[in-house]
Amino acid sequence: xxxxxxxxxxxxxxxxxxxxxxxxxxxxxxxxxxxxxxxxxxxxxxxxxxxxxxxxxxxxxxxxxxxxxxxxxxxxxxxxxxxxxxxxxxxxxxxxxxxxxxxxxxxxxxxxxxxxxxxxxxxxxxxxxxxxxxxxxxxxxxxxxxxxxxxxxxxxxxxxxxxxxxxxxxxxxxxxxxxxxxxxxxxxxxxxxxxxxxxxxxxxxxxxxxxxxxxxxxxxxxxxxxxxxxxxxxxxxxxxxxxxxxxxxxxxxxxxxxxxxxxxxxxxxxxxxxxxxxxxxxxxxxxxxxxxxxxxxxxxxxxxxxxxxxxxxxxxxxxxxxxxxxxxxxxxxxxxxxxxxxxxxxxxxxxxxxxxxxxxxxxxxxxxxxxxxxxxxxxxxxxxxxxxxxxxxxxxxxxxxxxxxxxxxxxxxxxxxxxxxxxxxxxxxxxxxxxxxxxxxxxxxxxxxxxxxxxxxxxxxxxxxxxxxxxxxxxxxxxxxxxxxxxxx
Length: 489
Ligand SMILES: [Zn+2]
Ligand SMILES: [Zn+2]
Fold this sequence. Notes:
The protein is an alpha/beta fold. It has three domains: about 1-55 and about 455-489, Urease, subunit C, domain 1 (Roll), CATH 2.30.40; about 65-175, Diaminopimelate Epimerase, Chain A, domain 1 (Roll); about 250-445, TIM Barrel. It has helices at about 65-70, 80-90, 115-120, 140-145, 165-175, 180-195, 215-220, 240-245, 285-295, 310-325, 340-350, 360-365, 370-375, 380, 385-395, 410-420, 430-435, 440-445, 465-470, and strands at about 1-10, 20-25, 30-35, 45-55, 55-60, 75, 100-105, 130, 135-140, 160-165, 200-205, 230-235, 250-255, 300-305, 335, 355, 395-400, 460, 475-480, 485-489. The strands form four sheets. A seven-stranded mixed beta sheet has the order 3-2-1-4-18-19-20, with no helix packed on it. Strand 8 and strand 9 form a beta hairpin. The two termini are about 25 Å apart. About 50% of the residues are buried. One zinc ion binds near residues 205, 253 and 402.
């Protein structure tokens, strides 16, 4: 048995409730103490005054892509095409390929994507995939063109840019032709990044959002290789396959609609900067009603990517349809939930539908002068990412990064949640912590997320107490405890 002491262990059961020592046996919390007890035959571990929370959970990631791209070029701070090319030129190969991610052409002074010819100059001999920050479009070089089968001839003036189905085909070709070793290395990289960020559980989507779950069985059979817990989602539209692999859930970023960046989020009113465009629903109501009902009847939790109010409405209605047939507490997920109407919120509350959201989206694109305001106008933009409204409504709200779309940095996410651009949607420090601990655990019925007797001993150790500083800035993850074992990060 281990006695962790000299720390403040916030239980996250009731706001402000904390312990001074915790006894751990076989990876579980045996007992919590308000004062360090005198016990015989225990290993005492002094935590040097750290502030401790239940191990943080990120409830929605694409860890394979995140891990894989972390081995390639990160373009998120590039401000010109020449910087993009320089970063690609100096990035290492992964297997036989090159990867670059987080490209935002709006941040480049040229306000455009690099072309195939430009990419060929810095990467002439290996296939190269450069993904846009939202993952909904990409650019490729000539070598990549040689390995991808689009099922049709591309036009002769093809300049390297791909979106919609072709973007998916390109990404999946790269991902599906990697070796098992490169795939495991990508998850191992994700594991390390998560630990450094103080995250001990990561929900991760595996699959092409259609009918191929790629390397799901490979990762499922290697879960014990990782320090953190990965909670796997077969990200497919095939309920039968999800059942076959023994999954309790299905979906993830299976797309009800696209994204604001690509003007493909489905809206009830048109885009402000494209008055003839309201985006598009990717599937019919009937398709989703059948898919959701099939999963629901087989006791699978369903998650669907919904950005615009029209897409959210469509999927909420599919969940309601299934719940009306037979009410179950499966905590089906609306993922992203960016532009949500009051009527959708009411239904989510009534029919126990959960929201898996990304506070960082607001930090990146929110506010009067942000990207959302440019495409849908300030009025609608300020009613997006309604964290506090949803939290207060009683709908289960879980926090996540959508990594690789944003970074897997928990303190940055928590800070974003307490400093939303719309003040009315800011969470308190306790509420922000709740969506990454207790609520995330509830979402997956995991036996962690709070510090209580009988729970798994997963802890995140911070240098400073955010309840005192009222901030997550200037703080640091010093270590984590995973299933009772201290891991320095
Ligand atoms: Zn996602
Ligand atoms: Zn998504």
